[in-house]
């Protein structure tokens, strides 16, 4: 019965319009829209990857081998199941024009490439013609950035290894580029047969082969994958098919999307503060209405249900607006988004992400409105006439506390489930909770300090008025510090994480990193290579080691993934080396290195940190597939491997006898003075044209470019959170306009001029903004440290430029919000205001 009456009361209340609830609607709509838009874009990319899976992959399925070509059995199996089989060889080399050299990622293809899709060239021509013989030399195409670097135009000649090629066209687009993964150099495409006589595919050269298959219609891809893995997985095979044509891209999109959703939840938390403040302000404005209802006999439950239904209906409206915006914005911006994406996307309305965003918004509204609504039950009618909220107890009834906690737990559970990243979800929740507690404590402390400061600031009326206003209940100091502080905290944490990640990659390396990596150094070249460098006074250090690639397939004769899960060491092939003597600088943490003349069964030294993560112990056996051959060895030692120096670091090292006879090359790092780098490269490339040089600084810059996109995406999410906080500031400033009007009238009556009053308003905004910025800075630094240290495992230092920007941003935001509503109080006539208060 009470619910029916409450529904009638709520319906009548809603006739009054949205006065007092605009900020609630805006906060919920913005937070939900951000999450819905991120989810829609992610779903669009995933749908595009599925729809264009075969085109992205370059076939219906792909078999990938490292360091070797497919053997006869593998070729026979592929020929038996596929309509067509296309072979691609992928490796790095140096393109040379005179004295200019550029690192390039070579794709050597056969006559069937591409099985699916087309290659776009400038000038437009068939790929078959572009890769044919031109003026007695084999043709090749390359990306514009590499051609510009080498000063090439179509028709010009360049060298790869010991062979000359003609640049026939500029590569504008390759249909399977997304499946190629991260590359250190721009792409060059040529025929595999053209590599004959180039000295580029000598035994031991680092390369991979990919066999693209077109399959008969109706082929069961899952069953075919199972068959291929059962036959060849121990040979080092990696399988990909059109169900997920670009797995690396898909995984990246999933992780980035999950992270952005969590950033969006931070924005919803900021919006929740605004929602709570709006409800509290609205209830305070309904003092006379609630008092009248209580006087007429309305029960506590009826009053609570009345405003719960009213706020619930308005929350649903805000969520609906947010869902609509989140669904339509990606559709409207689809041409711009697609132009920036390296993969296809199918933009349309996807119910799943929209429902997810709506659930997040609904639970956020429930958690943040229940508390202020519940407190009205415990306020007596007589007290309501004097003060609607502050006269009540600090905490609502236990049942409402339990419901709030249950709603929060459900929100976190769904966030972890939807995102698939429980650990990151818990970290985010802990960070938001900690920041809110810190900001709430700071708001209380600011009010206490302002109250005391107003008593001792005699002689400075402007400051005294500002401090007195901050310490009062009507200035909304708590809402300002919570909303703006949390938004700035998210932005500060993102800035600190981004800065430290960039510093870890670019900032610390120049002092310790080598100048070049040289790969594909043949056995008969290593002596001359070493002699050239050791005789150069500009070279401070050389590190060289044998280099093979292998895949760990079994641990203690059990499939490796059953033992160590999806650890990154098991995801693809890893570098393998051998050494008789323990290399200089090696630190054994457990076990012992083998004797220099050891000739027994294979022994392994494994990286200590990764061994701990995988659960390995001394005496365990590992089976490593190298060039299609299984080698099983026993772990004899663990050692420290430091990848942060950009030097040579192998997860797995073996005794020389274990790899006897396996074709391989050498890898080397050279530490030299910057002025000597160019001459070293010219001398080595001229003498050994098959050697590939990778300049460490160029590789670092390539990674930094990828990080720039990630940082931009996270910054956009953080900016949405900050915008929500600014909306809450506007709401707090708007709700306090009445109090400021009366305050200004009193001050004008006592002789204060408009300029002094306006300065007082500005000063209180600056103080609150500075306080929110300082607290947010502390929370952001703490959050950035935690993520950098425990999730990204990088060293941490404060990025002071970003930190100072956060503080200044807090001051600016509160000042703008405060001044936005300062005109009416300053310009109102005192007599009219004071007469209305009589």
UniProtKB/TrEMBL annotation:
Protein name: FtsX-like permease family protein
PANTHER family: INNER MEMBRANE PROTEIN (PTHR30287:SF1), MEMBRANE COMPONENT OF PREDICTED ABC SUPERFAMILY METABOLITE UPTAKE TRANSPORTER (PTHR30287)
InterPro entries noted in UniProt: ABC3_permease_C, MacB_PCD, Membrane_comp_ABC_pdt
Span of domain ABC3 transporter permease C-terminal: 263-375, 719-827
Transmembrane as UniProt keyword: yes
Stretches that traverse the bilayer: 256-283, 304-337, 357-374, 400-418, 424-450, 761-787, 799-822
The organism of origin for this protein: Roseobacter ponti
Topology of this chain in the membrane: Multi-pass membrane protein
Compartments, as annotated in UniProt: Cell membrane
GO cellular-component term (any): plasma membrane
UniProt domain MacB-like periplasmic core: residue ranges: 25-230
Main location: membrane
């Amino acid at each position: 019965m009470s619910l029916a009456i409450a529904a009638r009361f709520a319906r009548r209340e809603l006739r009054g319009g949205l006065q007092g609830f605009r900020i609630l609607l805006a906060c919920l709509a913005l937070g939900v829209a951000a999450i819905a838009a991120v989810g829609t874009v992610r779903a669009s990319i995933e749908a595009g990857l599925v729809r264009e899976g075969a085109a992205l992959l370059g076939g219906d399925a792909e078999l990938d081998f490292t360091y070797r070509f497919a053997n006869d059995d593998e070729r026979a199996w592929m020929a038996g199941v596929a309509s067509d089989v296309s072979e691609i060889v992928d490796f790095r080399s140096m393109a040379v024009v005179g004295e200019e050299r550029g690192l390039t990622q070579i794709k050597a293809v056969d006559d069937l490439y591409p099985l699916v899709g087309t290659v776009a060239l400038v000038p437009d021509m068939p790929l078959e013609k572009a890769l044919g013989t031109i003026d007695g030399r084999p043709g090749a195409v390359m990306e514009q950035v590499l051609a510009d670097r080498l000063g090439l135009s179509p028709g010009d000649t360049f060298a790869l290894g010991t062979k000359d090629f003609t640049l026939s066209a500029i590569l504008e687009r390759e249909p399977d580029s997304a499946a190629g993964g991260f590359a250190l150099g721009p792409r060059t495409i040529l025929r595999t047969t053209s590599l004959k006589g180039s000295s580029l595919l000598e035994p031991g050269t680092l390369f991979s082969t990919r066999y693209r298959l077109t399959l008969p219609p109706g082929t069961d891809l899952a069953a075919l994958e199972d068959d291929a893995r059962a036959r060849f997985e121990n040979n080092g095979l990696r399988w990909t098919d059109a169900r997920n044509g670009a797995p690396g891209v898909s995984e990246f999109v999933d992780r980035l999307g999950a992270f952005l959703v969590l950033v969006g939840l931070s924005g919803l938390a900021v919006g929740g503060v605004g929602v709570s403040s709006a409800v509290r302000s609205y209830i305070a404005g309904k003092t006379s209405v609630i008092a009248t209802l209580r006087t007429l006999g309305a029960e506590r439950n009826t009053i609570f249900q009345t405003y719960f239904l009213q706020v619930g209906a308005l929350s649903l409206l805000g969520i609906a607006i947010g869902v609509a915006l989140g669904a339509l914005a990606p559709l409207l911006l689809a041409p711009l988004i697609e132009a920036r994406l390296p993969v296809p996307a199918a933009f349309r309305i996807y119910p799943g992400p929209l429902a997810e965003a709506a659930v997040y918004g609904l639970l956020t509204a429930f958690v943040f409105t229940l508390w202020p609504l519940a407190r009205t039950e415990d306020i007596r009618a007589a007290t309501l006439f004097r003060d609607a909220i502050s006269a009540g107890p600090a905490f609502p009834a236990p049942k409402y506390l339990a419901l709030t906690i249950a709603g929060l737990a459900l929100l976190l559970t769904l966030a972890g489930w939807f995102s698939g990243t429980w650990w990151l979800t818990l970290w985010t929740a802990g960070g938001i909770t900690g920041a809110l507690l810190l900001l709430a404590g700071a708001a209380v402390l600011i009010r206490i300090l302002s109250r005391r400061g107003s008593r001792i600031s005699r002689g400075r009326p402007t400051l005294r008025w500002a401090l007195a206003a901050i310490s009062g209940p009507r200035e909304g100091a708590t809402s300002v510090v919570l909303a703006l502080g949390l938004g700035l905290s998210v932005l500060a944490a993102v800035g600190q994480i981004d800065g430290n990640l960039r510093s870890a990659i670019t900032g610390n390396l120049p002092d310790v990193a080598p100048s070049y990596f040289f790969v594909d150094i043949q056995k008969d070249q290593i002596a001359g290579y070493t002699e050239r460098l050791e005789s150069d006074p500009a070279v401070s250090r050389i590190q060289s080691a044998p280099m093979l690639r292998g895949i760990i397939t079994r641990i203690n004769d059990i499939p490796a993934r059953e033992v160590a899960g999806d650890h990154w060491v098991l995801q693809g092939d890893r570098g393998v080396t051998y050494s008789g003597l323990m290399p200089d600088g090696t630190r054994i943490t457990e076990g012992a290195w083998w004797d220099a003349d050891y000739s027994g069964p294979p022994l392994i030294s494994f990286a200590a940190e990764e061994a701990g993560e995988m659960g390995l112990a001394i005496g365990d056996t590992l089976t490593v597939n190298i060039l299609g051959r299984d080698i099983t060895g026993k772990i004899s030692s663990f050692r420290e491997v430091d990848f942060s120096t950009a030097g040579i670091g192998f997860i797995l090292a073996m005794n020389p006898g274990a790899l006897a006879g396996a074709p391989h090359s050498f890898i080397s790092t050279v530490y030299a003075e910057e002025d000597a780098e160019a001459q070293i490269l010219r001398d080595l490339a001229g003498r050994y044209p098959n050697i590939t040089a990778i300049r460490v600084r160029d590789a670092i810059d390539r990674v930094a470019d990828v990080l720039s996109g990630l940082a931009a995406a996270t910054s956009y999410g953080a900016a949405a959170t900050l915008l929500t906080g600014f909306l809450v500031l506007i709401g707090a400033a708007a709700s306090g306009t009445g109090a400021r009007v009366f305050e200004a009238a009193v001050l004008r009556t006592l002789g204060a001029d408009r300029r002094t009053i306006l300065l007082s308003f500005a000063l209180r905004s600056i103080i609150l903004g500075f306080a929110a910025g300082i607290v947010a800075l502390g929370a952001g630094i703490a959050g950035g440290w935690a993520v950098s240290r425990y999730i990204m495992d990088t060293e941490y230092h404060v990025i002071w430029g970003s930190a100072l920007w956060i503080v200044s941003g807090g001051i600016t935001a509160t000042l703008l919000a405060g001044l936005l509503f300062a005109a009416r109080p300053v310009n109102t006539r005192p007599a009219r205001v004071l007469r209305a208060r009589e």
